[in-house]
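Entry 14. Ran structure prediction on the chain below.
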Amino acid sequence: METARWRFDMPHVGDRMELYLLGDMHIGTLACDVPLLKDFIAHIRKRPNARVLLMGDAIDAIGPFDKRLDIETLDYDTRSGKPVIDFQVDAACAILKPIAPIILGVLTGNHEEKVRTQSGSDPTYQICKELKIKYLKWHVLAALDFTIGNSVHRVVLDAAHGRFAGRKAGGAMNRIYDIAGYFPTADIVARGHSHHLFCDYEPTLVLGKILDIEERKVWGCNTGSFFRAYQQGVTSYAEQWDCSPSALGCVRFTFTHARPKTNKRVVVIKGEKMTAEDVR
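Output, structure tokens:
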């Protein structure tokens, strides 16, 4: 497990920062919707004060050692002279390079982990090295420290690629809130892997400093994917396993410097899922 701290200055009421949780891109398979992924990246580039966290499975990373390998589903140029995994790493770097300066870190996924454990080579490390991005490995507990006025407001993010792969979105959501109990200070719990796309919060109640009851929102999300399981003319392993089609996209959190009626400066968190309609 890794820890991290990211600092942001938001001196004025109304200042905001956007964090995009982008994962399960599966670059290197024909199931990856590359045009849609590029539209998301173009959208993010245009947003002021945007940051990105990559949630794992950036590449499909299915090679000769993997029983899921199907040559017909590879998005691969045999003329490149590169091994399949290296080809996918280079393709991912090319796609992600335009937003590399605003990527806070990269989590690895189960697809890259299988390559690492069976070959001794780590494709996520290669991507991070090429793009000069922090490698967060499997799981990160991060402090997002916002300077607002004369104080610092901390938002705690618990993020990992995850392993839960239930067929129903409801099961994934329940699992997210189970995990939230492991890290009670977390304001946001984010997982990938399932390819479900949802973002919502559960209210909790805390006792304030002046013995008032305050509501604290705990956000939970599955961060979606860019893996289109069902396409005419393409057979994916997800189709063979009768996995459900899922909405493609990612999750965005907006952090806004606000001063509500109490006159106390705060950071307001808003989470939402984003799909093609939001970027095209």
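The helical segments are 34-46, 84-96, 110-119, 123-131, 169-180, 237-240. Will compare against last week's run tomorrow.
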